[in-house]
Amino acid sequence: MALQTAPAVFLASYPDAPPGPLHQAAFLYDNALATIALTGCDRIADARRIGDAMLLALDHDRFWHDGRLRNGYLAGAVGLAPLKLAGWWSTRDQRWLEDNYQAGSDSGNLAWAMLALLTLEQYAHEHDPGDHDGRYLAGAARLGGWLAAQRDRRGAGGFTGGSFGSETVVRALRWKSTEHNVDLAAAFAWLAASSGDAHWRELSQAASRFVEAMWDPRRGGFDAGTREDGVTRNALLAIDAQVWPLLALPDAAARYHQAYAKSAQSLRTRDGAGYAYSEAGGGAWIEGTAMTELLRKLLGSEAGAPAAIAAIGLARAPDGGYFATTGATLPTGFMLDTDPDQPRVYRHLEHLGAAAWVALCDRGFDPFIGARSLPSRALQ
User: Fold this and answer.
1) pTM of the model
2) Which of 41, 44, 150, 260 has a CA positioned 20 to 30 A from the CA of residue 130?
3) In the chain, where are the structural domains located?
4) Which contiguous run of DSSP H or E holds residue 225?
């Protein structure tokens, strides 16, 4: 596999995180998003360093060799040795610990890695044919093969959540996420168009049908997904499940325009400065605020723009990055997979994912299609 002269690298998701599960953790989703944002900002060489790290991770996992990536890795340069995961020393247990979420493989995170590799493949094909060996397309197809096995026939179909835990305690995630299936619908459709393989198109349609089934016309929004039984709906209103379908699915912005209005009305923070993660409330989630502002820009709507821009500005870190939230903590409405008794929250830490979404918003770059417009073509 040909690599760039500069070493492949995974970036820390929370560069200032104290010792513990987040310290030096490079989450796959954040790095995939950064790859796409760097491409949108015309920093292709930097983007390819992260993309090449993903390809090395596919080939050099310490255990898995079936086309999956982990949810997180140790930040830093990546080489030919088996990739390390972030971890921390537990003084209580007197041993080195790893986070079981980071060791697992969420379907949505792997779909984002596919989108990142396909973005790089599109750049190589269109702008640098002399260095176009198809490695990013091949990597995306390998990920697609593992993700295809997560297809589910219960209820509205679609794809399950992936796997949780390290290779010694791996557990299948049987719930289904609207957000994940949006990611998969976009990634499989792009893979079909790039490869000419109709198999991927059919998988894209299966994911898209699940997303459409999660639409609740009475509330004018998308439910978050299903519970473990694959049928019972999780009715939580989360902002990414409202915004992402409109960015990713052909003609969804017209068919489900109420979802944008629902986000603007129901998920705006109490002070009107930005958007919360979900109905759980709290302060501004900077990723969600930036993705909503990106959708607004692509729709040509002026509603809510000044408040969103102000909220994003308040989250700017001294070094130019962005904090995950403007408050001390931000609830999501979900519980931790690693400890179901504890809520999953965002903390006031500088966050790679937040910075990437702000960059995409600034450039008006839709990460689901690698372009500065909304998807309009129908699924073939």
Assistant:
1) 0.95
2) 41
3) 270-370
4) strand 225-226
